[in-house]
Specification:
The protein has helices at 13-22, 56-61, 72-78, 103-106, 119-129, 144-147, 162-166, 186-191, 193-208, and strands spanning 3-8, 38-40, 46-51, 67-71, 83-87, 93-99, 112-116, 133-137, 153-158, 170-178, 180-184. It has 2 domains: 3-92 and 179-209, D-Maltodextrin-Binding Protein, domain 2, CATH 3.40.190; 93-177, D-Maltodextrin-Binding Protein, domain 2 (3-Layer(aba) Sandwich), CATH 3.40.190.10. Helices cover 33% and strands 30% of the residues. It binds adenosine-5'-triphosphate and 1-O-pyrophosphono-5-O-phosphono-alpha-D-ribofuranose.
């Protein structure tokens, strides 16, 4: 096998499969709903491993995958040294601070309680502002936290805004823009350059009409 590619299951899978297909790679066994975790192309040149989105950086950093596709949020949160080679411009959303409108007037303690799936991103953001926070790490349904007064605000993904709106919350601050990125293991980029570079070139061309 020449290259191993870590693909995030979930939201980014469909786009990633379409992208590889547009690069002329046989993706017939690589369906969004497959339960197989390791899928190879017909030429046995590429091996796709289907992983939990937040684990993509770990597989690539450890070198068990040469390449990966992951959201910028996941990359920032894991903070691992990887080469970020392409902005795939899909999975677009923003990391935001959200809460009740007029949140500032509601805060009773001087340390803001922040519920989030992204403790590292939240800490970096508030550190930069010089504000102390207490982080409450959750793994989903983050918008529930202010409703139950588990937290004052949340730091989470906002795309259409439907989830915060339907839960009576609003964007208070924008932290950063997010999109999916192609990342490469630092050693693989040197040792497998003759395989990786042409694939990246094909991806750049394929991305132009997606
Ligand atoms: N509502 C959204 N709209 C657009 N892109 C999103 C949205 N939520 C997440 N994303 C992006 O898509 C990536 C994958 O999201 P997905 O929901 O599949 O995984 P996840 O949030 O890590 O899921 P899990 O909770 O199962 O680990 C995220 O890392 C982010 O970059
Ligand atoms: O602005 P919107 O278009 O409504 O999208 C934002 C929502 O999508 C993500 O949640 P996800 O669907 O992954 O669910 P979970 O994190 O609560 O499991 C994110 O954590 C927000 O809750």
């Amino acid at each position: 096998m020449e290259l191993t590619i870590a693909l995030a299951k979930g939201r980014l899978a469909k786009f990633a499969i379409e992208l590889f297909s547009k690069c002329g790679i046989d993706t017939s066994e690589l369906r969004e709903d497959t339960r197989k975790l390791v899928v190879c192309d017909k030429k046995n040149e590429l091996r796709f491993v289907l992983v939990k989105p937040s684990d993509v950086p770990v597989y690539v950093y450890r070198g068990v995958a040469d390449i990966g596709i992951a959201g910028k949020d996941t990359l920032l949160e894991e903070g691992l040294p990887l080469y970020e080679m392409l902005d795939l411009k899909c999975g677009k959303c923003k990391v935001c601070v959200a809460g009740y409108p007029k949140q500032k007037e509601r805060i009773t303690s001087n340390i803001t309680r922040v519920a989030t799936k992204y403790p590292r991103i939240a800490k970096m953001y508030y550190d930069e502002k010089g504000e102390g926070i207490e982080i409450i790490k959750l793994n989903g349904s983050i918008e529930l936290a202010p409703i139950l007064d588990l937290s004052d605000v949340i730091v989470d993904i906002v795309e259409s805004g439907t989830t915060i709106r339907e839960n009576g919350l609003t964007i208070l601050e924008e932290v950063c823009d997010i999109s999916a990125r192609l990342v490469v293991n630092q050693v693989s980029l040197k040792t497998k350059a003759e395989k990786i570079q042409p694939l990246i070139e094909k991806m750049k061309i394929a991305l132009e009409d997606m």
